[in-house]
Amino acid sequence: MNDPKDRKQDQDPLLLDHEYDGIQELDNNLPRWWVWLFYLCTLFALLYMGYYHVLGKGDLQIAAYTKEMTLGDAIKDAAQQKFESTLGSLEPSRDLVVLAKGGQVFTTYCAPCHRNDGGGLVGPNLCDDYWIHGDKFGDNLKIVITGVPEKGMLTWKGVLTPSDIHAVASYIFTLRGTHPPNPKIREDQAPVPTEVFE
Ligand code: HEC
Q1: Handedness of CA 132, 137, 138, 143 (dihedral sign)
Q2: Tens digits of residue pLDDT in 73-93
Q3: Is ligand 1 within 6 A of the CB of residue 136?
Q4: Is the CB of 172 inside a 6 Å radius of any atom of ligand 1?
Q5: Checking CA distances to 99, which of 7, 13, 18, 132 falls within 20 to 30 Å?
Q6: Residue 13 has what pLDDT?
Q7: Which domains can be identified in the chain, with CATH numbers?
Q8: What's the gap in Å between 171 CA and the centre of ligand 1?
Q9: Is 156's C-beta closer than 6 angstroms to any atom of ligand 1?
Q10: With 0-12 CB in 10 A as exposed, 13-18 as middle and 19+ as buried, what is 94?
């Protein structure tokens, strides 16, 4: 009585003759939309493979990535060059948002050497009127960009964006004329070491 073969005829002509745990299967045709989707996917896969892998016309991921990175680097370099070519004519910003950003950059990256108040530590005092590399705003910008690696001032080009460099230089410009306690002694007034090692 439970043999599916017996039931096949009187139940449904589509019913297949196997049964597992009381579960039977109907041999329906696949819906049209599903079949078309299948054909289209197959067609797409063939075209895709032909275009990218057989003919090699399109860029694979690595090539596309490299191309975009090269393009990005070119845009970045152009912005950096434009920034560096206008250093002499740039003015310190007085925009409070820019100065706040500059202050943030200063505390994070510069304060360890120049002290939070700019009074100087490893790096020189940025508040007095004495400047090793020139007192113009553009001189400050230039030093921040190139650094003085042999004296311990880092090169910030490539680490900070031009707008961050402009912001931090604008910020240290506001420190000029402030008199933080116990500032670092001016380099030209520092006592010259008397011991000479040979
Ligand atoms: C690792 C320590 C260090 C850090 C970090 C550092 N500096 Fe300096 N900085 C120095 C030293 C040392 C000098 C002096 C270079 C020299 O004697 O030529 C200097 C010089 C300068 C000068 C030139 C001062 C002058 O008298 O002409 C400026 C401007 C300056 N730093 C700004 C910055 C800014 C802005 C940052 C953060 C983005 C920064 N520095 C981070 C060590 C540092």
Answers
A1: positive
A2: 999 999 999 999 999 899 999
A3: no
A4: yes
A5: 132
A6: 84
A7: 1-59 (no CATH), 84-188 (1.10.760.10)
A8: 14
A9: yes
A10: exposed
